[in-house]
């Protein structure tokens, strides 16, 4: 269809926007106040994650809410702590009987290293069985 100035005009059909669902459309907002120093910290954390501040804050809040405030369990760190525990217990047990030889120390250390993975798996399994939503670590 042409207008009086000779330029054709076409009618653009209106397309309704899809109705937002609660799963994919965020309709709620939260406002908070931060000091300049706090904002700098948050902004730096968001930048280092490659995210906008609002996106980073949303993820941080949801992570905190979903884990119940518990930090994820680091299985490597847990394994080392369990190995250290086993090492100390065995050292005290053997040392109470007399002096320790280098060979005995090597054997105790090797044993602690050999079982740390298994003990970590067992402990994480027990924790998950008690509270499945609170343990995020995977081994």
Summarize the structure.
The protein has 139 residues and is an all-alpha fold.
Offer a few descriptive terms.
139 residues, mainly alpha, 4 helices, elongated, disordered C terminus
Explain this structure:
The protein is mainly α and 139 residues long. Among the domains are: 36-67; 75-130, no CATH class. Helix content is 56%, strand content 0%. It contains 4 helices and no strands. The protein has helices at 36-48, 53-67, 75-95, 102-130. Helix 3 (75-95) packs across helix 4. The radius of gyration is 29 Å and the shape is elongated. Residues 9-15 and 134-139 have low confidence and may be disordered.
Write the layout of secondary structure elements.
Elements: H1 36-48, H2 53-67, H3 75-95, H4 102-130
Helix pairs in contact: 1-2, 3-4
Percent of residues in helices comes to 55-70%
- N- to C-terminal separation? 68 Å
- The structure class reads mainly alpha
Helical run tally = 4
Shape by Cα distribution: elongated
Mean pLDDT: 80
Would you count the extended β strands for me? 0
Run of helices and strands: HHHH
Largest sheet: none
The value of Rg in angstroms is 29 Å
Low-confidence stretches: 9-15, 134-139
Range of strand content: under 5%
